[in-house]
Design brief:
alpha/beta, extended
Length: 373
């Protein structure tokens, strides 16, 4: 049994990061995927850090197709921190609301759950900021400040605070080392993370424009390029002046600049082999999927991509079906003679040979001085 089968990872999974400006078709595309899975009898879990973008999915929730957990409504639940809720979901637990206004976690993932959606990376970044303030977490030399404000409501206190620059690096690390790998290890065939886009200052001097074009992980803070590339698929959503909706699976220049400006590039990646990518480009030559209203355009792209990946994998397996590792004996390495000026090391248990004394010149005797009479 292969290690992949032993770990239960033998079926293909897709972890996707959808990002783009507001009203570019992200939630509508998620809805189309939810609907396509629902037609096959599958359900979806939907964790949202957005404050209202999921409203168009409410009919699916009422039909029992989507289980929506609005994170912001439960941040004040007794004994709960937002970051701990997110980490629990990333490890396969699911929060279930209770009648007292709190919630409990279920460790069970039903087989009919085929999709996990985590909406709002920048919203999750805000949740992490709040957690750092509430715990007064210190990162490097930057402390997180927490203070309380007397509320006008009797018996209540409002909490405020501020974090330092080092805390944003900690948020990047949280995504890269914990959340993205954890989401990728879950048994959902599809996991979708969504977020907004932004252009931020490049403080590391890596971009010729001095700007970073990337998804946002917090207000005004872009996801580091190496973190963004750690997901299986990075898809950018955009609209054209004519009203066409696009989902890019290939990096592309910012359309604001014509001709394109060096470095003003939006990242996107289908994360497939070169052979599969060429076949994707045969069907989608411009590097994007045109999102048609009322159509499952992106779902069709996913199915086409998966069929190409599966066919490519099968061709490799068939090609090397009778593969056996070579059993040739490696040839003996040729002996290299050492230069004469290198002395060999002494054998174990013997003293090193003394170096020969340098030749000496004969010393003339001192001259004799005649004695006086």
């Amino acid at each position: 049994m292969s290690i992949l089968n032993a770990l239960g990872q033998d079926r293909q999974k897709s972890v996707m990061l959808f990002y783009g400006a507001s009203a570019t078709g992200k939630t509508t595309t998620v809805e189309s995927i939810i609907a396509a899975l629902a037609e096959q009898g599958y359900t979806t879990r939907y964790l949202t850090a957005d404050t209202g973008g999921y409203e168009q999915l409410r009919p699916y929730a009422e039909a029992g197709i989507v289980d929506i957990f609005p994170l912001w409504k439960f941040l004040d639940a007794p004994g709960q921190l937002g970051q701990s809720i997110i980490r629990a979901v990333a490890r396969g637990y699911w929060p279930i609301a209770t009648p007292d206004g709190s919630f409990k976690f279920s460790p069970h993932i039903p087989s009919h759950n085929q999709l996990l959606v985590v909406e709002g990376l920048d919203g999750i970044g805000k949740v992490m900021e709040r957690t750092m303030v509430e715990t007064e977490q210190k990162v490097g030399t930057d402390p997180a400040y927490r203070y309380e404000i007397e509320s006008l409501a009797e018996g209540l206190k409002e909490v405020g605070g501020k974090i330092g620059l080092s805390h944003y690096g900690a948020i990047q690390t949280e995504y890269k080392l914990y959340l993205f790998p954890a989401f990728a290890s879950l048994p959902y065939p599809y996991t979708i993370l969504t977020g907004h886009e932004g252009v931020t200052t490049d403080k590391d001097g890596l971009s010729p424009t001095g700007k970073i074009y990337a998804p946002l992980v917090a207000p005004g803070k872009a996801l580091a390029p190496e973190v963004a590339q750690s997901v299986a698929m990075l898809i950018r959503f955009d609209t054209t002046p004519s009203g066409e909706y696009r989902a890019y699976f290939e990096k592309h220049p910012d359309p604001e600049f014509n001709p394109p400006k060096p470095g003003a590039i939006w990242p996107a990646n289908a994360r497939v082999s070169d052979a599969v990518f060429l076949k994707l480009k045969e069907r989608y030559p411009q590097g994007f999927v045109k999102l048609e209203p009322g159509q499952k355009s992106f779902w069709e792209f996913l199915q086409f991509r998966e069929s190409l990946v599966s066919a490519h994998s099968t061709s490799i397996i068939n090609k090397f079906h009778d593969f056996k590792p070579r059993e040739d004996v490696a040839p003996e390495a040729p002996k290299v003679s050492q230069p004469s000026f290198i002395r060999p090391l002494p054998k174990k248990g013997t003293s090193p040979a003394a170096a020969p004394a340098p030749p000496t010149k004969p010393v003339a005797p001192p001259p004799t001085i005649p004695k006086k009479p």
